[in-house]
């Protein structure tokens, strides 16, 4: 496939001379380090954090590469997936000139980040069963369409997109195709990382925030060609992942089995929640889920949402979102949390 990444890139980013940190200029580990204006005595805390962390997170990427089946040069790590989204806009989208294609209903950050970066948004809605409309997407695109964001499994609709539709768009879309797989661990769908060598215009995003239970650390992953990853590295803030995060995740990654156990438990709780909800006469629809949440339609969702809050149960109100009229998005909790939710839900809906 012919694809010229540099011609997609903003000209000033192509020319950009990136910041070189002290750790870029001297990469040895031994010596007396008087090059980064750090505190030589240690830290105010009992553990020491006085030295700047590895700006490229090499040790961590080696381990992520192993579990994800990619090369470490194909990995970008960001302060949450949101950082990767923002960097993509800044690298590829000229304000007032370029556009991106978004597929509502979907994750809100693609739109917010476009607005922050003053980039035109073209929306092509999903179908009523939340699938892609590939021909309409291509019809909406032009030479200035730099990025297409596909979220699969999708937030908030919980379904996965048809694989052949994504492959078709990877072949035909003129710009980058981002496949956001934040919820892939809860799906039986294989990751699009297996397609990286076939499609230089593909960027796959995943996160440590959901299945890994590390939302507070802020660590997002993006997988792409080494050329594309090099661009993101070139424009990122030098030390975007803290040393504490790098060390913590490096240690945690050895315990992949624990993640798999948590995923299995969340999936069985999702089944439990779904079965219980199916028994409730006021529930109009439970959308099929490949994620760790259920999108559920009830009459008067706004009122139900407010009444649930009075019962101290907080769900996400999606009632105003396109194609999600009267829907609440309910994250799968522990058994005790799910039962407490169900009790409150029955009470406010009866
Ligand atoms: C939760 C979520 C993310 C993860 O964002 P982080 O910044 O990594 O926490 C990304 N995409 C979607 C669609 C999400 O729902």
From TrEMBL:
Enzyme Commission code(s) on record: 2.6.1.9
Q: Which domain of life is it from?
A: Bacteria
Which CDD domains does the entry mention? AAT_like
Specify the Aminotransferase class I/classII large domain's residue ranges. 47-345
Q: What is this protein called?
A: Histidinol-phosphate aminotransferase
Pfam families, per the entry: Aminotran_1_2 (PF00155)
Subunit info here reads: Homodimer.
Please give the catalytic activity noted in the UniProt record: L-histidinol phosphate + 2-oxoglutarate = 3-(imidazol-4-yl)-2-oxopropyl phosphate + L-glutamate
User: What PROSITE patterns does the annotation carry?
Assistant: AA_TRANSFER_CLASS_2
Keyword annotations: Amino-acid biosynthesis, Aminotransferase, Histidine biosynthesis, Pyridoxal phosphate, Transferase
**Could you tell me which SUPFAM superfamilies the record lists for this protein?**
PLP-dependent transferases
Q: Which family does it belong to?
A: Belongs to the class-II pyridoxal-phosphate-dependent aminotransferase family. Histidinol-phosphate aminotransferase subfamily.
Q: Which cofactor does it need?
A: pyridoxal 5'-phosphate
Does the keyword section mention Amino-acid biosynthesis?
yes
Q: Which residues carry this modification: N6-(pyridoxal phosphate)lysine?
A: 210
Under which pathway is this protein filed? Amino-acid biosynthesis; L-histidine biosynthesis; L-histidine from 5-phospho-alpha-D-ribose 1-diphosphate: step 7/9; Lipid metabolism
InterPro entries for the chain: Aminotrans_II_pyridoxalP_BS (IPR001917), Aminotransferase_I/II_large (IPR004839), HisP_aminotrans (IPR005861), PyrdxlP-dep_Trfase (IPR015424), PyrdxlP-dep_Trfase_major (IPR015421), PyrdxlP-dep_Trfase_small (IPR015422)
């Amino acid at each position: 496939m012919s694809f010229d990444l540099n011609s997609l890139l903003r000209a000033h980013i192509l020319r950009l001379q990136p910041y070189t940190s002290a750790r870029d200029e001297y990469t040895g580990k031994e010596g007396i380090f008087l090059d980064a204006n750090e505190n030589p005595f240690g830290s105010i805390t009992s553990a020491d954090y006085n030295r700047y962390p590895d700006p490229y997170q090499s040790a961590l990427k080696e381990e992520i590469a192993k579990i994800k089946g990619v090369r470490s040069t194909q990995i970008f790590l960001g302060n949450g997936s949101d950082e990767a989204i923002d960097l993509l806009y800044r690298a590829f989208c000229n304000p007032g000139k370029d556009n991106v294609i978004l597929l509502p209903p979907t994750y809100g950050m693609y739109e917010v980040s476009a607005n922050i970066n003053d980039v035109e948004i073209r929306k092509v809605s999903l179908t009523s069963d939340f699938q892609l409309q590939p021909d309409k997407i291509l019809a909406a695109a032009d030479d200035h369409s730099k990025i297409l964001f596909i979220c699969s499994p999708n937030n908030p609709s919980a379904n996965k997109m048809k694989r052949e539709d994504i492959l078709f768009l990877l072949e035909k879309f003129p710009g980058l195709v981002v496949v956001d797989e934040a919820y892939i661990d809860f799906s039986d769908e294989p990751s699009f990382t297996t397609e990286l060598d076939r499609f230089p215009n593909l960027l796959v995003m995943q996160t440590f925030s959901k299945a890994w239970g590390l939302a507070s650390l802020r660590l997002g992953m993006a997988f792409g060609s080494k050329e594309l990853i090099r661009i993101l590295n070139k424009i990122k803030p030098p030390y975007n992942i803290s040393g504490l995060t790098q060390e913590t995740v490096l240690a945690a990654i050895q315990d992949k089995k624990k993640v798999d156990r948590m995923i299995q438990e969340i999936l069985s709780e999702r089944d439990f929640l779904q079965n219980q909800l199916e028994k409730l006469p006021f529930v109009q629809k439970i959308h099929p889920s490949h994620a760790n949440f259920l999108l559920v339609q009830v009459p008067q969702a706004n009122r139900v949402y407010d009444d649930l809050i009075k019962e101290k149960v907080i769900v996400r109100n999606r009632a105003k979102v396109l194609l999600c009229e009267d829907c609440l998005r309910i994250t799968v909790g522990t058994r005790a949390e799910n039962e407490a939710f169900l009790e409150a839900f029955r009470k406010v809906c009866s």
